Amino acid sequence: MADVVAPVAAVEEKELLPPPELDLRRAVRLGLSNAAAMVLVAATGIVGTFQGRLIIDPFLPLGLLFLYMLSWAFGWLASKPPTTLEGFAPAVTGPRNLAAGALAGGIGGAGIALLLVLMTNFNLRGIFIELSPQLADTLSLGRAVAEQGEVWFVVNIPAVLLIVAVATAAGLVGAGVHFLAVSWRRAIMPGLMWVLIFALFTDIVGQFFGGIGLEFVTDLLFTSPGGPLTVVGAAIVFVAFTALYWYRGGRETTLRQRFDVLPAEKRTRWTIGLAVAIMVILWFMPRVMGPFVSQVLDNAGIFLLMALGLNIVLGYAGLLDLGYVAFFAVGAYSAAILTSPLSPAFSPELTLLAALPFVMVAAAIAGIIVATPVIRMRGDYLAIVTLGFGEIARILLNSAWLSPYFGGAQGITNIPDLQLGPLTFRTPQDYFIPIFLFAVIAAYITLALQKSRWGRAWMAMREDESVAEAMGINIVTAKLSAFVVGAILASFGGALFGSQIGSVFPHSFDIVVSITVLVIIIVGGMGSVPGVTVGALALIALPNLLREFSEYQFLFYGVLLIAMMLVRPEGFIPSKRRAQELHTEELAQDDWLEIYGQAGSSEQVAEGTV
Amino acid sequence: MPMLEINGLTKSFGGLRAINALDINVNEGEIVSVIGPNGAGKTTLFNLATGMDSPDEGGILFEGQDLVGLRPNQILGLGLARTFQNVRLFPAMTVLENVMVGQHARTRSGLLSAIFNTPRHRREEAEIEARAKEVLGFFGSRLVGYRYDQLSMMLSYANRRRLEIARAMATDPRLLLLDEPTAGMNPRETLELTELIGRLRSERGYTIVLIEHDMQVVRNVSDRVVVLDHGVKLTEGSYEEVSTNQDVIEAYLGRPAELGS
């Protein structure tokens, strides 16, 4: 080992170059992005909508907080010290960082000030309907807008100065984060995050404490059940969580890193333990959380079923299916026809459980119908054709021609509740149980197939279709089977969806559902079951829980998607291989170090890798 | 009867005759090198033989069975596997998985047995894995141990070529088509691979056809050399015969100036 250490020591002795200066032009550019983002948030009406919600009673409304959090975030980004490169001394934070943060934040504020001036002088509402006088009042931070009329152009100077000052301050606070010692940063930031979580999800937090018999905590923290946090409440939450993270944190390694170095068997045991723990918590969740949260979780679970199915079609087999909602519709409608007494043409009135095998067969047939014409298609062509299939399914269900069978736009109603022997599932809380069980089964199937002969065949097909075929994989069977498995999983979701809602209508199955499922697996992490689960919870459950957000759901999806593509293209919780695939250069380096450590001498290294 | 019998094979791409009325026979247990300048039609020949492209005319018989019109996976099932000139592994799959895919055509487990994790499925999975490891062991210590779980894209170039051969070996072929197996390797690795090709025949019993530009390799491994130029067979015979053939020298080096036109 001695000869390995020697060169490292030699490197340390070498004179280190001073770190590169923080780029202030970059700060200006980020400031302009910040201005654009802030104006967008104001002009789309997000600020106005969110303003109605108090975060901390009596002074912090969500609208302005959201607006100036952008300045904070851009200030943080602009003042972030550059990564230490080899041969350079580590960067030291100084006044330049503060300047960068202030610049990025202040320019954003200038953007909002400009918007305010324009709003007060010209009528922009013809185009941007959300730029209302109330919004002007909000944006000017309560500084009354000057009288219009005599002067041809009014600039509300106190308001402009105040806006720029607040935005600059927010940028400075963002920059200030870099001045905190790592251990402090790791405690304070989560502390603030939890305050925000408590404030945003007041009903759920209230219900949670109520559900576990600790109502007094709710009374202590919030002005009223479901109301905003009190100042004292916010302080308590902040101190409690900061202390918790302070105690737990300050460690060099994250939990994930410590997990990764465990031996394989221990890792498996921990993974299983964690999965069981999560399942147990989820199992009791609806009982604690009440009907509203349960309904949201049910929705998320149904989308999770679809996402797991699409994960097989797209994540494993690499077939971009943009009409995936068709399979969901087939599941919902076949179950509705078989169980509802009001099914127009054919109504055997089976129980859902008895209907399930037929639903699976119907889904499998649908999978084959979609897959057959696209067997020899790849990439874009496949996406377009499947997109067509998705729309065809919806239009057929909606058509007058097939309305004697599917009920046309009136759909099929009176779908009975799910019955299992003596148990009847009626409320959202009840439905959570079967949805949860199906999701677990789907997750298990996904994981089992991943390590199987066909799982490998799908992945090989995804990687290189012609080579996969030349290596003995029957492409026809592989594509058909991927579509069939995906279709069956989605059809479970559809059957439960129809049964829970009690009716199915064609308009529930439009393209937006396909796109949402696609976004879930991209954001969550393609090919990864935990990732897809987190994606479904984050994209379906969160916007539904935050009523203010649900109006802008798709805007946030778009922003999230772009941000993810830029920062973390592999998704929240990627499968390990996908993370490696998308960060090859970094890994290649680690790889080199690993070999270096193992081989012991540079000669052997050369032999092993060249 | 020869193991591989190619008769009057013709393939055009637009106006270009890539392969023109080609006849080649390969006997069981032989190592045959196909050489020729760039664009001679060597890789097209492999594509036609493995079903990745279909011929315009002519026949390809493998152990008496006509390959024309079969899908690539069916041809592989008969025992004819190949590697690619521009290494085509499954990049985001691990080394072990790449080789395990090779056994797809030799195993039967279906989706249901995987979902229910039947004893038969478990046994087959264990066999596939053991067999994949055995095949990787053929390359010494280069592709074993911690390499199993590395993505194939992380491998060095030479190791990718080795892995490609391993993947082809895992399909249990009787005839192995190697497309420029030593391209991009340094002299020592080339030497090592030359020896390995010999072992593929002596230890594994494969019949081998290889496309190769390195004449050292061709001389050291081939029983017979076939020279292609513009889709036509110029000549064939032992390395010595071929290397002194005037047509071959011209095809490679061009006609001497004084004999021109």
Outline the fold blueprint:
The complex is a heterodimer of chains A (about 600) and B (about 260).
Chain A lengths: L1 H12 L10 H20 L2 H6 L2 E3 L3 E2 H17 L16 H27 L11 H7 L17 H20 L5 H19 L1 H10 L3 H7 L9 H18 L6 H6 L3 H53 L8 H15 L12 H20 L7 H20 L4 H4 L11 E3 L2 E3 L2 H23 L2 H11 L1 H6 L4 H27 L9 H14 L4 H17 L1 H4 L2 H15 L8 H7 L1 H16 L2 H8 L1
Antiparallel strand pairs in A: 1-2, 3-4
Helix pairs in contact in A: 2-4, 2-5, 4-5, 4-7, 5-7, 8-11, 9-10, 9-13, 13-18, 13-21, 13-22, 13-23, 14-15, 14-16, 14-21, 15-21, 18-21, 19-21, 22-23, 22-25
Chain B lengths: L3 E10 L2 E11 L4 E5 L6 H8 L7 E6 L2 E2 L5 H7 L1 E3 L12 H8 L8 H5 L3 H19 L19 H13 L5 E5 L7 H18 L2 E5 L3 H7 L2 E6 L2 E6 L1 H5 L2 H8 L8
Parallel strand pairs in B: 3-8, 3-9, 6-7, 7-8
Antiparallel strand pairs in B: 1-2, 1-4, 4-5, 9-10
Describe this structure in words.
The complex is a heterodimer of chains A (610) and B (261). With 610 residues, chain A is mainly α. Chain A has 2 domains: 21-83 and 90-179, no CATH class; 264-574, Orthogonal Bundle (ABC transporter involved in vitamin B12 uptake, BtuC), CATH 1.10.3470. Helix content of chain A is 70%, strand content 2%. In chain A, the strands form 2 sheets. In chain A, strands 1-2 form a two-stranded antiparallel ribbon. In chain A, strands 3-4 form a two-stranded antiparallel ribbon. In chain A, a hairpin with a 3-residue loop joins strand 1 and strand 2. The radius of gyration of chain A is 28 Å and the shape is globular. Chain A starts with a helix and ends with a helix. Mean pLDDT of chain A is 85; it is low at 1-11 and 587-610. Chain B has 261 residues and is of the alpha/beta class. Chain B has 2 domains: 4-79 and 173-259, P-loop containing nucleotide triphosphate hydrolases (Rossmann fold, 3-Layer(aba) Sandwich); 89-160, no CATH class. Chain B is 38% helix and 23% strand. Chain B contains 10 helices and 10 strands. Chain B has helices spanning 42-49, 72-78, 95-102, 111-115, 119-137, 157-169, 187-204, 215-221, 239-243, 246-253; strands at 4-13, 16-26, 31-35, 57-62, 65-66, 80-82, 175-179, 207-211, 224-229, 232-237. In chain B, the strands form 2 sheets. Chain B has a 6-stranded mixed beta sheet with strand order 6-7-8-3-9-10, sandwiched between helices. In chain B, helix 3 (95-102) packs across helix 5 (119-137) and helix 3 packs parallel to helix 6.
